[in-house]
């Protein structure tokens, strides 16, 4: 993630809503991918002061005005009340229920970061409302544990509605509980995962979405099958095998995570998520002077070399702070080849909705 600059010269970050130096209101302009200081010119009309906006006028996203849950802007000539990130929402949780609003706001923050990630990779993002067959949508749902007095033997018939985080046909569903730090850590330990983050879920599930868009009928499908395996193998039984027997013992030689060994689709989604994570973190490192601009080289060998150097440093810093390693992964040579192929698919996408 880049950093941005206020008209007053202060450094701004993606999540900011006010400049702490000049106290101007701020908003992210999705059309030019920048955070801008704003000057009020009407009831809900703002002049964007960032040079990239070229004097453009904007409204605040309705979730900015009504919920303080978004900091994105909508160009004044766009009739939609919501920004390009919020209009992807198909369902949001019941905000009247105590605690839900805080969790939902965390989810929205990560979603906006994902959309920025995708856009900076020049991957167009279209809502399902205008592109029902190829568009993207989100559902943020809360599991309903159901009545507690149900007899265990009937639990299969009567257990409440258990929300599974996942992707199906352009709809990415995120279980609200993933935004609860305690709950997410409990799930991480239970699933024996090295890392489980909210943004990681968004990145992973978007990998499934773009597999359908870019790989399934794309020119690189055979190359993808060579490296990731043949995705036509039965997904359900592959998943059952993984949960019954665990990952193969030598998974680290071939996969970026144990879960990636489930099925070629999961391997793809895990590598996709890693590529987005690596690129975003390297971009941040360059922006704040922790890595040279060359670290963002289009040559993936260069980028990955800088990434490995940086990841070691981040891990060591965190050990000094008595925090777990933020990047507890090994990038074996086959994994590096897969990351390069993901990058090539993105670069060559020529994506049309
Ligand atoms: Zn300022
Ligand atoms: Zn919004
Ligand atoms: Zn998956």
Overview of the molecule:
- This protein has 353 residues and is α+β, with helices and mostly antiparallel strands.
- The chain is built from eleven helices and eleven strands.
- It has helices at 62-67, 100-120, 155-158, 181-190, 198-215, 221-228, 235-245, 251-254, 264-287, 300-320, 333-347, and strands at 4-5, 11-12, 26-29, 34-42, 45-48, 57-60, 73-75, 89-91, 137-141, 166-168, 171-175.
- The strands form three sheets. It has a five-stranded antiparallel β-sheet with strand order 3-4-5-6-7. A four-stranded mixed β-sheet has the order 8-9-11-10, with helices on one face.
- The protein binds zinc ion (3 copies).
- Give the bound compounds: zinc ion
The average pLDDT is 92
The fraction of residues assigned to DSSP E strands is 5-15%
Poorly predicted spans: 147-159
* Computed structural class: alpha+beta
Shape: globular
Query: What is Rg?
Result: 21 Å
- Our measurement of the CA-to-CA distance between the termini, rounded to an integer number of angstroms, reads 26 Å
Please sum up the structure shown.
By secondary structure, the protein is of the alpha+beta class. It has helices at residues 62-67, 100-120, 155-158, 181-190, 198-215, 221-228, 235-245, 251-254, 264-287, 300-320, 333-347; strands spanning 4-5, 11-12, 26-29, 34-42, 45-48, 57-60, 73-75, 89-91, 137-141, 166-168, 171-175.
